């Protein structure tokens, strides 16, 4: 058996395809992005080494708009953590109290997660359509004409209009994670608390939620890093417009690289996205404390 | 027996119990209201999509905005599939997704076998590096991947998507397989070995058949991420011949801005495979998509 396990040729054959792919499509590109981020390069002319020039421009140039895009991503992260997650938690708690049609509700709540963001984006484009969209039609029929707007086209409403579908889509995802977590808590604990006279609300507040902390931590990490990476829905709904009102780092990166041929600057944004994701993941882990590990 | 029932009935009639019961009733009404509202918020966009995919502009834009279609216009579907090229985009997506799933299953299960069952120097390091891939946002590699594929003259082909999709799915797939293979007792390998199975025989005859549940999880997860992917499909494919469904919808909605019916039909067509799959195996799909978070 030992000689079979230590078969070197077999080990190489089995791991080779994965490591080859992983190296050429993930590891190497990350380092290439890191290198490009120090270049002034338009993809056509010879690149020039400009040190941290791109990073300085990233944080100081208002025209390039990175600070604004980062702020938007952070607002999204904030809304995800303080609106999306509490909503998910509330639904998970309600569902796990044992309601009729539990499975049905779980299935329905999870559905938006499965549907392509392009489809969801196109649907919301129609929902927000200024002339025929459901939002404005509903406002008109309620006699609230003065509140109708070009939701995605106006500076002050575009950002929130884009965030609503993003937050809505993933409520079900977090709900399911939390729901599965609650279900794995032994029912005896809940029953014992009931016998002692605790109400449902008290059980949730003092028993379930504290026991759910590791899962809530995962959800917070996903919500924050997901917000930093957000791309699809914003790209479909506004492409970062109007006038950069809804720009986030990913959309800015793509438009810098592929519309404006700023390869070096775009790569600097890519590196910042990776760095920020790692930073926030670690910071959140730290903030939640390590006592439960 | 009778006595007991009477006792219970009596208890129900005492005032305190009645109050408690009323409270419970009220709170459960509240619970169902909240759940019902959220369910409606989730179902409505889909319902709306299905209905407007069968309507004429006249109905969508005024006569009948949220009702069922008065006249079922299946011609919208015909338009989307032929004039809108959705049939071709579907086929392209099916080819890319299908091959990616097959490659991912083969490569990830092989890697898992090497990482968990075979003994070689550096396997811990390789495993750690691959697991790091879980946290790296794929968007960050888009430019180098674009340049590499350009150098290899592979932009505008099925491979242009299949290769990156497979690579980016690997970390998650290997993690799912790793979590599963540890529960397959090593004694099985040993028994097979004693019976004369080679290292390859153990993989193909023992491990692979037993890994089926993990592999189906990986397949579902890969299907959804490829079928719905937008950024890479948009950037790496320029030629309409290889365009996948998510980019196809974008193109269609760009050219049919005033005709909503065919766009709705295209959206339904794109969503249909997912919903069919979901209606048959909702629990399995829910587990597949959250598998990554369990260890995260």
UniProtKB/TrEMBL annotation, chain A:
Annotated TM spans: 12-32, 73-95, 104-125, 158-180, 215-237, 263-284
PROSITE patterns: ABC_TM1
First-listed, main subcellular location of the protein, grouped into a coarse class: membrane
Alphabetized UniProt keyword annotations: Cell membrane, Membrane, Transmembrane, Transmembrane helix, Transport
Subcellular location: Cell membrane
Domain of life: Bacteria
Pfam families the record matches: BPD_transp_1
One biological process term in Gene Ontology: transmembrane transport
Membrane topology note: Multi-pass membrane protein
Ranges for domain ABC transmembrane type-1: 70-284
InterPro entries: MetI-like (IPR000515), MetI-like_sf (IPR035906), UgpAE/MalFG_permease (IPR050809)
SUPFAM superfamilies per the UniProt record, alphabetical: MetI-like (SSF161098)
Gene Ontology CC terms: plasma membrane
Membership in a protein family: Belongs to the binding-protein-dependent transport system permease family.
Protein name in the entry: Xylose ABC transporter
Organism, scientific name: Acetivibrio straminisolvens JCM 21531
Automatic annotation (TrEMBL), chain B:
Subcellular location: Cell membrane
Primary localisation category: membrane
A single BP term in Gene Ontology: transmembrane transport
TM region positions: 29-50, 86-108, 129-149, 161-181, 202-224, 260-280
InterPro entries per UniProt: MetI-like, MetI-like_sf
Annotated GO CC locations: plasma membrane
Membrane topology annotation: Multi-pass membrane protein
Domain ABC transmembrane type-1 as annotated: residue spans: 90-281
Pfam family name, one: BPD_transp_1
Family: Belongs to the binding-protein-dependent transport system permease family.
Protein name: Xylose ABC transporter
Lineage: Bacteria, Bacillati, Bacillota, Clostridia, Eubacteriales
């Amino acid at each position: 058996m030992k000689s079979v396990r230590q078969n070197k040729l077999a080990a190489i054959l089995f791991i080779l395809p994965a490591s080859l792919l992983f190296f050429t499509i993930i590891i190497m590109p990350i380092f290439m992005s890191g290198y490009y981020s120090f270049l002034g390069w338009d993809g056509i002319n010879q690149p020039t080494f400009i040190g941290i020039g791109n990073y300085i421009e990233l944080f100081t140039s208002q025209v390039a708009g990175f600070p604004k895009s980062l702020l938007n991503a952070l607002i999204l992260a904030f809304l995800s953590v303080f609106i999306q997650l509490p909503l998910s938690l509330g639904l998970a708690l309600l569902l796990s109290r044992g309601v009729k049609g539990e499975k049905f509700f779980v299935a329905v709540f999870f559905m938006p997660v499965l549907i392509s963001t392009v489809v969801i984006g196109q649907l919301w484009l129609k929902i927000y359509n200024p002339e025929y969209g459901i939002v404005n039609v509903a406002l008109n029929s309620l006699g609230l004409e003065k509140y109708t707007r070009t939701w995605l086209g106006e500076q002050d409403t575009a950002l929130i209009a884009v965030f609503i579908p993003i937050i809505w889509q993933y409520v079900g995802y977090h709900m399911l994670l939390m729901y599965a977590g609650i279900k794995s808590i032994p029912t005896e604990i809940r029953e014992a608390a009931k016998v002692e006279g605790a109400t449902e609300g008290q059980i949730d507040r003092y028993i379930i939620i504290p026991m759910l902390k590791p899962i809530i931590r995962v959800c917070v990490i996903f919500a924050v890093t997901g917000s930093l990476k957000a791309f699809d829905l914003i790209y479909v709904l506004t492409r970062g417009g109007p006038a950069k009102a809804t720009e986030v780092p990913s959309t800015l990166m793509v438009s810098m690289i592929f519309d404006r041929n700023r390869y070096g600057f775009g790569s600097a944004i890519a590196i910042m996205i990776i760095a920020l994701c790692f930073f926030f993941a670690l910071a959140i882990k730290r903030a939640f404390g390590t006592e439960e590990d | 027996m009778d006595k007991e029932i009477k006792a219970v009935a009596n208890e129900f009639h005492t005032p305190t119990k009645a109050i408690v019961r009323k409270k419970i009733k009220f709170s459960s009404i509240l619970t169902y209201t909240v759940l019902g509202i959220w369910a409606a918020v989730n179902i409505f966009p889909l319902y709306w999509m299905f209905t407007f995919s069968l309507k004429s502009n006249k109905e969508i834009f005024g006569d009948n905005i949220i009702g069922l279609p008065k006249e079922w216009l299946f011609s919208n579907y015909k338009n989307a599939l032929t004039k809108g090229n959705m049939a071709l985009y579907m086929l392209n997506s099916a080819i890319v997704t299908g091959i990616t799933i097959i490659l991912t299953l083969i490569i990830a299960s092989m890697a898992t076998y090497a990482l968990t069952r075979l003994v070689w120097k550096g396997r811990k390091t390789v495993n750690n590096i691959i697991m790091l891939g879980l946290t790296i946002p794929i968007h960050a590699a888009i430019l180098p991947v674009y340049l590499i594929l350009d150098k290899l003259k592979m932009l505008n082909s099925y491979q242009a998507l299949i290769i990156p999709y497979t690579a980016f799915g690997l970390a998650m797939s290997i993690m799912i397989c790793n979590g599963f293979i540890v529960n397959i007792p090593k004694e099985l390998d040993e028994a097979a070995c004693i019976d004369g199975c080679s290292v390859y025989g153990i993989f193909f005859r023992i491990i692979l058949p037993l890994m089926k549940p993990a592999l189906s999880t990986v397949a579902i997860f890969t299907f959804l991420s490829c079928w719905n992917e937008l950024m890479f499909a948009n950037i790496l494919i320029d030629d309409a011949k290889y365009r996948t469904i998510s980019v196809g919808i974008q193109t269609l909605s760009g050219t049919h801005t005033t005709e909503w019916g065919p766009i709705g039909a295209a959206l339904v067509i794109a969503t249909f495979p997912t919903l069919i799959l979901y209606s048959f195996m909702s629990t399995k799909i829910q587990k597949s998509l959250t598998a990554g978070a369990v260890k995260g």
